[in-house]
């Protein structure tokens, strides 16, 4: 069992913050792309299809677009955080296993 040091805890906290930041940035990028990808067909269908023109008011259009953006954000952010945490845990395990014992 390894001893817990202040430096070790600070290092883990910094890695967790970086992992969360990477997730937020990737999620935001995905949300922007998804909102554009959802907005184009939604707005085009409201102009071209009589059913959509009659039944999709501006609130419904905004709800469709924001739901897609929110889902994309959370899915991509979650996958990014998990992948980064997995990569960091393998990196930490490798460092612990390759340290030379002190005599």
Question: Which percent range describes the beta-strand content?
Answer: under 5%
- The overall pLDDT, averaged over residues, is 87
Which structural class matches the secondary elements?
mainly alpha
Q: Characterize the main sheet.
A: none
How much helicity do the residues have?
Answer: over 70%
Query: What's the total number of strands?
Result: 0
Give an overview of the whole structure.
- It is a single chain.
- The chain has 103 residues and is mainly alpha-helical.
- It has three helices and no strands.
- Helix 1 (6-48) runs antiparallel to helix 3.
List keywords for this structure.
about 100 residues, mainly alpha
Explain briefly what this protein structure is.
By secondary structure, the chain is an all-alpha fold. The chain has three helices and no strands.
SSE blueprint:
Blueprint: H1 6-48, H2 50-55, H3 58-98
Helix pairs in contact: 1-3
């Amino acid at each position: 069992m390894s001893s817990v040091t202040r430096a070790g805890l600070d290092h883990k906290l910094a890695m967790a913050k970086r992992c969360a930041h990477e997730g937020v940035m990737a999620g935001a990028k995905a949300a922007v792309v998804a909102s554009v990808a959802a907005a184009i067909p939604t707005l085009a269908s409201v102009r071209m299809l009589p059913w959509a023109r009659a039944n999709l008011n501006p609130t419904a259009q905004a709800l469709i677009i924001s739901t897609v953006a929110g889902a994309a954000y959370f899915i991509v952010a979650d996958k990014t955080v998990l992948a980064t945490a997995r990569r960091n845990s393998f990196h930490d395990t490798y460092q612990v296993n390759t340290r030379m014992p002190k005599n």
